[in-house]
């Protein structure tokens, strides 16, 4: 009895300690984004929204934020469409070397982003394509396509096949089956793939860093902010990004998982 | 005849669906990889890359101590991080699965991975806030009076490891938890009925059954950790460079593309070896 109570105490202490470890940097980040002073470290001098004001007045940061959103949404749309079509083709038809095809589509998942970025950089340099947000977007599709394909492919079950066959028997053309029957049935996993891609692209640094030149995405702009050392403004933009990701997560939870859970 | 042409038609349609994605991956992943491999066999003269098709860069890598050391630094950091993260995450996942009431478990998990959603660059910066010379820990300790002089915690290997562990504890808690709850409770009940005590149940039943899941998480940790540039650059400083930092240095200051490509291939070699080791081990486990 005593030992069970003892282990209970240990468990809760461990739980609290690890949650403390996990949350420490986030709490420090958010708390000192309100710091009334030049350094985001203790002692806490009092709350101000000054740094948030500076963030939203910073044209470069705001431009980078816009770029990030554009690249994230654009590249995720492309990755989702390509991934969905490929999943449809491979799950619904018998194709030669389908294992090899799946292997090729999944392959980028197993390679470090740094290596993907370097490969693309070498190739763009070689062909003479100049770097821009477009090249960043291409890179982000490369890393998100395997993810979209895998998620959507995994959710294509046999029971949907019968419904598709019924639609075909009733005279639907292939693209009608795909867009009006298959896509709506798989919407939860398509949305999950899309939102995951958006968060990955939104947060990605090394590809965006190596493949962009004048217009940059938010993580790259934050990176250049870091050169000024500890600065409450960096805390503020970091907190904004965190809030944005959490909001996205909430949308995903409410829109997608809630609905699947009901089913 | 009619059947065959119908099949042809079906096949053509199927290719139409798969080809765009395949083309994208081949154009922007497979070909770039081949180009990079080719460039690793080239040499740099001035700003020009000259194809010489030899392995000089690879020989240089093994001869130059500071380059080779980068690989070892990366490997040491990665192994340390993987082991510490598993040791910290396993009990956490266990407690969430066993001790936390059922209806709170989902909430507990979401909380445990919440900081996952801070930006990657910002997360390392946050640890800098905590560990810096005038950071949270030092200032607090000085304020309480435990230490008089600030401790040197940032710009060390420990700082890099702490930053990494923070990230991977969250990741591994998720994967290990998923494994723990998948396990049928009957197994443990049966073992307990046969007289095993708590520790024996864990050691002989639970751990072996969750090991494959741990290995998958460990492999993921390995791949993400060894290829990361941000965390060692922000937290580790320039005292001791990890391989990705050296790669970026070749690109930036030295503009030595062939060497950067060579080092990347070496990095990939390390990941491939880890993959083979994991796959073999998992296969052995299954038979």
TrEMBL record, chain A:
Entry-linked SUPFAM superfamilies: MetI-like
Any Pfam family hit: BPD_transp_1
UniProt xrefs under PANTHER family: PUTRESCINE TRANSPORT SYSTEM PERMEASE PROTEIN POTI (PTHR43848)
GO biological process: transmembrane transport
PROSITE patterns on file: ABC_TM1 (PS50928)
Domain ABC transmembrane type-1: 65-252
Cellular component per GO, a single term: plasma membrane
CDD domains the record matches: TM_PBP2 (cd06261)
Subcellular location: Cell membrane
Membrane topology label: Multi-pass membrane protein
Keywords assigned: Cell membrane, Membrane, Transmembrane, Transmembrane helix, Transport
Membrane-crossing segments per the record: 12-34, 69-91, 103-127, 133-156, 177-202, 236-257
Similarity annotation: Belongs to the binding-protein-dependent transport system permease family. CysTW subfamily.
Protein name in the entry: ABC transporter permease
Coiled-coil residues: none
């Amino acid at each position: 009895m005593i030992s069970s109570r003892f282990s209970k105490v240990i468990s809760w202490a461990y739980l609290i300690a690890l949650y403390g470890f996990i949350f420490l940097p986030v709490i420090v980040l958010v708390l000192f984004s309100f710091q009334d002073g030049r350094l985001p470290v203790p002692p806490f001098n009092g709350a101000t929204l000054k740094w948030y004001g500076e963030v939203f007045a910073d044209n470069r940061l705001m431009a980078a934020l816009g770029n990030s959103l554009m690249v994230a949404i654009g590249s995720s749309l492309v990755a989702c469409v390509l991934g969905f079509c490929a999943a449809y083709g491979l799950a619904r038809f018998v194709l030669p070397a389908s294992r090899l095809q799946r292997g090729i589509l999944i392959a980028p998942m197993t390679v470090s982003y740094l290596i993907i970025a370097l490969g693309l950089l070498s190739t763009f340099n070689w062909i003479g394509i100049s770097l821009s947000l477009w090249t960043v977007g291409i890179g982000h599709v490369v890393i998100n396509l395997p993810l979209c394909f895998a998620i959507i492919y995994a959710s294509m079950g046999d029971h949907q096949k019968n419904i598709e066959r019924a639609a075909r028997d009733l005279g639907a053309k292939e693209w009608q089956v795909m867009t009006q029957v298959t896509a709506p049935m798989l919407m939860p996993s398509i949305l999950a793939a899309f939102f995951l891609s958006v968060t990955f692209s939104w947060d990605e640094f090394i590809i965006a860093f190596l493949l962009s030149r004048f217009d940059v995405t938010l993580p790259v702009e934050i990176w250049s902010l870091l050169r000024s050392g500890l600065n409450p403004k960096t805390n503020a933009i970091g907190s904004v990004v965190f809030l944005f990701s959490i909001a996205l997560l909430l949308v995903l939870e409410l829109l997608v998982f809630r609905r699947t859970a009901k089913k | 005849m009619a059947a065959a042409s119908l099949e042809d038609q079906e096949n053509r349609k199927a290719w139409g669906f798969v080809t765009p994605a395949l083309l994208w991956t081949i154009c922007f992943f497979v070909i770039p990889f081949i180009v990079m491999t080719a460039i690793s066999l080239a040499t740099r003269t001035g700003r020009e890359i000259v194809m010489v098709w030899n392995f000089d860069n690879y020989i240089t890598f093994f001869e130059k101590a500071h380059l080779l050391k980068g690989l070892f630094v990366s490997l040491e950091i990665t192994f340390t991080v993987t082991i510490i993260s598993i040791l910290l995450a396993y009990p956490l996942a266990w407690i969430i699965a066993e001790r936390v009431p059922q209806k709170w478990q989902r909430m507990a998990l979401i909380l445990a991975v919440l900081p996952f959603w801070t930006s990657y660059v910002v997360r390392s910066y946050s640890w800098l806030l905590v560990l810096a010379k005038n950071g949270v820990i030092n200032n607090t300790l000085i304020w309480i009076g435990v230490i008089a002089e600030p401790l040197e915690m940032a710009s060390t290997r420990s700082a890099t490891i702490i930053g990494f562990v923070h990230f991977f504890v969250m990741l591994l808690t998720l994967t290990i938890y998923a494994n723990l709850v998948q396990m049928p409770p009957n197994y443990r009940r049966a073992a307990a009925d046969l007289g095993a005590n708590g520790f024996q149940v864990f050691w002989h039943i639970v751990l072996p059954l969750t090991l494959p899941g741990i290995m998958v998480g460990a492999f993921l940790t390995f791949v993400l950790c060894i290829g990361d540039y941000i965390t060692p650059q922000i937290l580790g400083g320039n005292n001791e460079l990890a391989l990705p930092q050296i790669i970026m240095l070749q690109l930036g200051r030295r503009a030595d593309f062939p060497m950067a490509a060579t080092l990347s291939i070496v990095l990939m070699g390390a990941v491939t070896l880890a993959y083979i080791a994991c796959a073999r081990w998992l296969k052995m486990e299954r038979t």
